[in-house]
Amino acid sequence: MQTIHYKVDGLDCAEEVAILRREIGTLAGVLNLEFDVINARMSVEYDPEIINPAAIVQAVARTGMKASPWEQRLAADTRTFWEKHGQLALTIASGVLLLAGFTAHWIKHGSFMHALTGGGEADHVFPLAVWVLYLAAIVVGAWQVIPKAWQALIRLRPDMNLLMIVAILGAIVMGEWFEAATVSFLFAVSLLLEHWSVERARRAISALMNLSPPTARYAATGQEAPVETIPPGTRILVRPGERIPLDGNVCQGESTVNQAPVTGESMPVPKRPGDDVFAGTINEDGVLEIETTKAATDTTLSRIISMVESAQTRRARTQQWVDQFAQVYTPAMMFLAAAVAVLPPLLAGASWSEWIYRGLVVLVIACPCALVIATPVGIVSALTAAARHGVLIKGGIYLEAAGRLRALAMDKTGTLTEGRPEVLRVIPLQGHTENELLERAASLEAHSQHPLARAVLRHARAAGLNPLPAENTRVLSGKGVEGFWQGRLFWLGSHRFMHEKGQETEAIHAQALALEAAGHTVVAIGNNNHVCGLISIADRLRPEARTLIQDLHELGVKPIVMLTGDNEGTAKVIAQETGVDEFHSELLPEDKVAVIGRLVREHRYVAMVGDGINDAPAMAAATFGIAMGAMGSDAALETADIALMSDDLSRLPRLIRHSRHTLAIIKQNVLFALSLKLLFILLALAGQASLWLAILADTGATLLVIANSLRLLRSAPTNS
Prior knowledge:
Layout: E1 2-9, H1 14-24, E2 30-36, E3 41-46, H2 53-61, E4 66-69, H3 81-109, H4 112-116, H5 128-141, H6 146-154, H7 160-173, H8 177-209, E5 215-218, E6 224-226, E7 235-238, E8 248-252, E9 255-258, H9 260-263, E10 269-271, E11 276-277, E12 282-283, E13 288-292, H10 300-310, H11 317-348, H12 352-365, H13 369-388, E14 391-393, H14 396-403, E15 407-411, H15 412-416, E16 422-428, H16 434-444, H17 451-462, E17 471-476, E18 480-485, E19 488-493, H18 495-501, H19 506-517, E20 521-527, E21 531-538, H20 545-554, E22 560-563, H21 568-578, E23 582-584, H22 589-603, E24 606-610, H23 616-621, E25 624-627, H24 634-639, E26 642-644, H25 651-685, H26 691-710
Parallel strand pairs: 15-22, 15-24, 22-23, 24-25, 25-26
Antiparallel strand pairs: 1-3, 1-4, 2-3, 5-6, 5-7, 7-13, 8-11, 8-13, 9-10, 9-12, 14-26, 16-21, 17-18, 18-19, 19-20, 20-21
Helix pairs in contact: 1-11, 3-5, 3-8, 5-8, 6-7, 7-8, 7-12, 8-13, 8-26, 11-12, 11-13, 12-25, 12-26, 13-25, 13-26, 14-25, 16-17, 19-21, 25-26
C-alpha cells in the first residue's frame, strides 16, 4: 500500500470533496481518501498493483478539476496571472456587463422599475444590445461553473453548480434575462467570496512559515546562505533583533530570546551557552553563536506547520455532519424545487409560469455555499490562531473535544509541579556515606531522563561526583532500576519497590513515611543484602496550579484527577494544596490507563495532561491527550493530540474557552444559513421572493458567515 498527495485545483469546499469521493473512492485499488480543503490537498492511499497515479489524475480530470503531485510543487507561487486572478476578472466583467445591460434597458424604456422587473408584459423581446449584454453577463459569470455542472449532469450527481445553471436556464426560458444575468453574477460573487475566504485561511498558515528567516549567517565567515543548505552541526551567528533561523544550541554569547512567536510566552527567556534555541524566535539584546541541531525541514517550527496543515484532515464531528448533510441537501432541494414548480399547476390548476418561477427561486436560495464553507474556514482559523500562540491542536476533532471536556486527569510531576525536583536530604544507612549513596545512585541513573533521576545527577555533580554509568542496567517500569556498579548489583527505586525487595525494616519504613508525610518523594538504594540509604526529593508546586483548578471547575470540568507514581503521602499533600477532586498514587503505567478508562466510561470527554513521553499510554486511552512544555520535544509533539509549547498552565482553561468559542461560531453559522434558506423558501412559496433577491440574500449570507468564521483568526487560547 502507498499514499500519494495531490494539489487539486478547484477543491474549495465540501461540494468538491463529495464529487471527488464519488469519482475516486469507487475506483478499484483506492483504499482511503483524505481531504484538506484549506490547502486544496487530497491524500490517496492505494494499492499500486491495482491502480497507478496516472489513473487517479485522470479520474480527477473527469470531475472538471485538475490534480498535480504535491511533492512536485515549487515553494514559489508559479501560477499564471489568469490562474491567480481569472476568477476575479470574470466576476468583475460579469458585473460590468450586467450593469451595462440594465442601464441600456433603463435608457431604452425610460423606467427604472421596467428594467428592474425585466420588462413585464409583451416586451420581454429586448432590444438586441440589451439581450447581448445580458447573455454575455450570464456566460462570463458562469464560465467556471459550466464545466462542473456538465460533469454533474452526465453523471446524474447534482451539485450546487448544476443547481445554479438550471436556475439560470429556467429564468432564460421564462424570458427573465435580467434575473438570469443577476443570478449568474451574484453566484460568481459568492464563489469568489468562498475562494477568498479559503485563501485567507491559507495565508494565515503561510504566515507561520514566515516566522523563520530564509537565510542564516555562518559564524566563521559572516556570509549568508539559504537555511535549506545548512546541515546540523554548523555554527551560525545571530545578531540582536534578528530571528533565529534554525534550531540549535548556544555555543557562545548570552542574550534574552523572545519565544512568543512559537510558544506564546509573554516574557523573553534568558539564553546562555548550553541552552537550546528554536527557529522563528527573536534574539533580543546579545550576539549568539549557535550550533545547529536540526535541518530546516525538521525544526520545531517546521514540524508545527506540518502538523497544522495535516490537522485539516482530522475533521470535527460538526464538520463531518455538514459534509454529509451537503451530500443529500442539494438533490433534496432540486426535488423540492421541481415539486414546487409542477405540483400546484397539476393538482390545483395554478399558473405554470408563476410556479415554475417560484421553483427557480427555491433552487437559487438552496445554494449551499454558506453552509459548506463556514465550518472548514472556522476550524482552520481557530487552529491557526492557536498555533500562533503556542498551542498546537492536531485536528478539528480535538478542538471540538476540548470544548466538550467533562473530566481531566493530570500527571503530577512536571504538570502540577514545576518538574525540576531537587534533592533535599541524603540519608546513609548501614555504615554507608552520603557520597557513596550519591555515586551509586548517579551511576544507575546516568542514562535516565526521568525528572527524579536528573535531580540525583545534578546533586551528585554539585558534590563533585561524576561516576561512570552502571553496567547492564535494567529499567523496571514504574518501580526503579537495577544495574552493576564496580561489579556488584545495586538497585534504586521507590518506597514500594524497596518493600517488594523485602529489605525494608520497621525503622526504615517509619523514616520513609515521615518524609512522605512532609510531601517528599523517597528514593531508596540497596544491594543484595540491605538498604544502603534513602534520598529525599521534593518538587515545587507551580504557583498557578490552584488557580488553574478553580478556573477549570468554573468551566464545568469536574472531576479533576491527579495521577502519580509517587507515594501516597506526597500525592496527598499536593492534592490538598491544589484542590483537585481526587488523586491516585503509586501508579504503574498500566494503572494510569485503567483510571483513564474508567473516567472515559463515566464522562466520555476526558483529557489526560502530561509530558507526552512517560504518559503516552494514558494519553492514548483518553479522549485526547495534552502535552505540557512540548517545545523542543519531538516525542511530545508526536504523541499528544494537543501540545502546549510552553509550561504555562493557564493555557488549559483558555484552550477550553477558545474551543467553545469556535463551536459557538460554527453553530451560529449553520443555524443562520439554514434559517435564512427556510425563510426564503417560505417567501418563495408565498410568491414574495424574486430570483435576484434570493441570490443576493444567499451571497450576503455567505459573506456574513465567512466574516464570522474569520473572526477566529483574531481569537486565541491566550485571549479568548
